[in-house]
Amino acid sequence: MFSGAAVQAGLLQPLLQMMRPKLERELADQCQALAKQALQGAELDLEPPSSMGKQPCQALAKPVSECLIRETSRSGRELGVISELLSGRIGDDVEVVIKRCLASLLGLQATDLQDVPLSELFQRLRP
């Protein structure tokens, strides 16, 4: 027999897939802002600032959004994640999914980062 969480897992994935283009745009925008911040003050004559980081950030946004949606479904926290995303906050459910996705992208077990505070993970990953 399936548990309630196992049956529910994946039921809201179509809604998450509909939200994916917005998520990808937001991820790409955040990536570009971080790239500009990291290069601020560097005297490089590479590209105009308006297009700096656009292509790599857009390329990165797709697999990251796919990972976030996949890990949301696997964790069974779809309803909580959707609720938190719609309210514009990072709560417990989104935090769990971010940690699971980071672990997946880094080749770790899904639970390896669960006890590390999210702020510490972000600080470690900053350029």
Question: How would you characterize the overall build of this protein?
Answer:
By secondary structure, the protein is mostly helical. It has helices at residues 4-8, 13-39, 54-75, 78-87, 92-105, 118-125. Helix 2 packs antiparallel against helix 3 (54-75), helix 3 packs across helix 5 and helix 4 (78-87) packs across helix 5. The mean pLDDT is 78.
What does the average pLDDT come to? 78
User: What is the 3D shape?
Assistant: globular
Order of helix and strand elements from N to C terminus: HHHHHH
Report strand %: under 5%
What percent of the residues sit in helical stretches (DSSP H or I)?
A: 55-70%
Task: Please compute the radius of gyration using only Cα atoms.
Answer: 16 Å
Report the span from N to C terminus. Answer: 47 Å
Largest sheet: none
Q: Structural class of the secondary elements?
A: mainly alpha
How many helices? The count is: 6
Short description:
The protein has about 130 residues and is mainly α.
